[in-house]
Every structure is written in structure tokens, then in C-alpha cells.
Design brief:
This protein is an alpha+beta fold. It has three helices and seven strands, in the order H-E-E-H-E-E-H-E-E-E. It is elongated, with a radius of gyration of 27 Å.
Length: 156
């Protein structure tokens, strides 16, 4: 009698599984067909896609080359290369940003660099298409050519 009971329970479980499978056949698809729907996919606003250094219309950025972002990066993704330049107002040497190198291939998107930046000089964008055929293309220089430090507004 137990043998027949276990067969009936097995058939019942199989029917339940088939019912769930049939429900999934008639449900609308929720998977995005990427890249066919490129331009129609809008990532979440909090998504960390690409690290950028915003510049204003005068090609000025906020990075003071302090290196805090580089020190807080857990795997050495960021290289802040600075140089000394004579400040015309004070007559003293001043450290300025020469190159800000970001290795997209080793970034873990932890955002410790953005969180630790005291100047808010870097931020994340929603750009998520980073595929390349060679690794050197993953190295990005974030400061634009000829860019300078944004001047502070003097309070009166």
C-alpha cells in the first residue's frame, strides 16, 4: 500500500512542477534583450558605471592632487601624478595635477575614492559600456589636456 501511495505522491509532485513550467511559458519576458534595445535601457541612477572628473566650460576641474583618493583605493586603480609649479600670487611652489590615471580594468567600484575626495573632484556616471579588445584601452586619463584647477570664489 505504501508503494502505491509513494507513486501517487510522485505523480502529484511532477504535475505541480509541470504547472509551474507552463505558467512560465505564458508569462511575458522580463529579460532585457541587450544590445538590441540599446538606447532604451536606462540604468538606475545610483549605478556606478564610470569614474569621471567633471570640468566646467573654462576647462577647469576641482582636483588639487592631494592623493587621498589614491591612498584610499584598495587595489591601486588610481594614480595621481602631480608636478610643482610656481604660484604667481604667492610666489611659492604649488602642487598641481599633471595626470589623473584611472585603470578601469582593476576597479572594484567600491567608491572609496569618490567618498574620500574632500574637493568632490571625481564622480560616477551611468556609462556602462566598457568592452574593449585590449587592456591598455582600459587606462583612462580623467583630467583633460590643458585643464587647470578651478579658482576658489573669494568671500567678501
Amino acid at each position: 500500500m505504501n508503494h502505491i501511495k509513494s507513486i501517487l505522491i510522485g505523480i502529484w509532485r511532477m504535475m505541480q512542477g509541470m504547472y509551474i513550467s507552463m505558467l512560465n511559458f505564458i508569462r511575458p519576458k522580463v529579460t532585457e534583450q541587450y544590445p538590441e534595445n540599446r538606447g532604451k535601457v536606462f540604468p538606475h541612477e545610483r549605478m556606478r558605471g564610470q569614474l569621471v572628473m567633471p570640468h566646467n566650460e573654462n576647462n577647469e576641474h576641482k582636483c588639487t592632487a592631494c592623493g587621498i583618493c589614491q591612498m584610499n583605493c584598495p587595489n591601486g586603480t588610481i594614480q595621481v601624478i602631480s608636478k610643482k609649479e610656481l604660484d604667481e600670487e604667492t610666489g611659492k611652489e604649488k602642487k598641481i595635477l599633471d595626470r589623473y590615471i584611472y585603470d578601469l580594468g582593476s576597479c572594484t567600484y567600491c567608491s572609496l575614492c569618490v567618498e574620500s575626495c574632500p574637493q568632490d573632484a571625481i564622480e560616477w556616471t551611468n556609462e556602462f559600456e566598457h568592452a574593449t579588445f585590449t587592456r591598455p584601452k582600459l587606462y583612462n586619463k580623467l583630467n583633460k589636456e590643458g585643464s587647470t584647477l578651478m579658482k576658489k570664489e573669494k568671500k567678501n
